[in-house]
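User: Could you go from structure to sequence for me? I need the amino acid at each position, not a summary. Structure tokens:
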């Protein structure tokens, strides 16, 4: 991570002001006192800074991607190679400088306002987000993705041998966590009622529901939490103009995975919504299905069944691992009881929890 003075020096060294002016198609100056770090991890750092033009002052986002990160490469490719194809869903990209400083990649882009913090989110607001999610999926659904050379070969493919190997790796780690959890006083009572069933389920093929694949794949964002969904105007009671950020988890994958992160994972966190959970998820599935129909896409399997399959698939291959890892790292795994209850109830309904 750089401090503001270091960055401003580097901006001058690499003539960033001139390059940004070209990208913005107007003369700008970076205001050095405005540079602030929003987030910094081992993989990347995100800064917000103000630039001044003849028409006024406005904010932009500056993101530094550290070298040797597969996920960073994916997101940079989204902003570089897929930008024209998926322009409607991305923040405007002003400048990308690859391997500029210590093999870092720098990206300067439009500042888009996260939905989180703009309003008190309620279930009705899903109606204003889901149409954009469906539009993303429809534009890249099956053959449309396969015909688009911009996406080849760098977009991870859920059906690939590489991703199958990754799923098996996570499942092996999950099984190890479950074994360790049976010897942990704080976890035994939670895990024990499900332990034998989970061990039996994990002995099967890591694709627990092939129907997810046969019902169609598209580009999925993969991490549709509220902090990654942005809109400049959330005041109207109609579909918002949405931009998505943080594309590092993008894949060509069954479309229903995005709906699970958007709806069901949020339901798991919102205890105040759970008494209406079935009503909320049923409505959201219907909205999504109807939006996909507008694009000429229908599903062979009952959409409500596909939703449950997607939740179980995602939870068994990744969700349980995430919650157990957090607990063993002395952090909260608040979704663990929710995941286990849903694996039991929906797993029985769909025939994998016997």
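Assistant: Here is the amino acid at each position, in order:
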């Amino acid at each position: 991570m750089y401090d503001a003075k270091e960055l401003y020096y580097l901006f001058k060294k690499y003539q960033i002001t001139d390059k940004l002016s070209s990208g913005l198609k107007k003369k700008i100056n970076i205001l050095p006192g405005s540079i602030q770090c929003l987030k910094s991890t081992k993989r990347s750092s995100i800064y917000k800074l103000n630039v001044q033009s003849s028409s006024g002052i406005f904010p932009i986002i500056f993101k530094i991607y550290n070298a040797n990160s597969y996920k960073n490469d994916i997101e940079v490719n989204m902003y570089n190679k897929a930008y024209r194809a998926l322009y409607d869903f991305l923040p405007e990209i002003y400048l990308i400088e690859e391997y500029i400083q210590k093999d870092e990649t720098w990206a300067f882009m439009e500042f888009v306002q996260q939905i989180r913090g703009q309003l008190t989110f309620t279930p009705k607001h899903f109606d204003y987000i889901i149409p954009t999610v469906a539009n993303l999926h429809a534009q890249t659904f099956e053959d449309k993705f396969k015909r688009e050379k911009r996406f080849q070969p760098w977009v991870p493919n859920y059906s690939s041998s590489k991703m199958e190997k990754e799923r098996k790796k996570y499942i092996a780690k999950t099984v190890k966590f479950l074994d360790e959890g049976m010897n942990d006083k704080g976890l035994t009572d939670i895990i024990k009622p499900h332990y034998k069933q989970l061990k039996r389920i994990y002995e099967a093929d890591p694709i627990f529901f092939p129907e997810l694949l046969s019902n169609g794949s598209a580009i999925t964002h993969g991490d549709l939490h509220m902090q990654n969904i942005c809109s400049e105007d959330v005041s109207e009671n109609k579909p918002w103009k949405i931009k998505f950020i943080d594309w590092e988890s993008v894949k060509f994958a069954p479309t229903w995975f995005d709906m699970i992160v958007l709806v069901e994972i949020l339901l798991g966190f919102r205890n105040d919504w759970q008494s209406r959970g079935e009503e909320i998820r049923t409505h959201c599935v219907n909205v999504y299905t109807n939006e996909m129909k507008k694009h000429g896409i229908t599903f062979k399997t009952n959409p409500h069944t596909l939703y449950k399959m997607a939740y179980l698939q995602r939870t068994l291959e990744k969700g349980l691992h995430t919650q157990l890892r957090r607990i063993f790292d002395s952090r909260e795994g608040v979704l663990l009881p929710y995941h286990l209850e849903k694996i039991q109830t929906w797993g029985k309904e769909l025939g994998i929890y016997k």
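One structural detail worth keeping in mind: The two ends are 51 Å apart (CA to CA).
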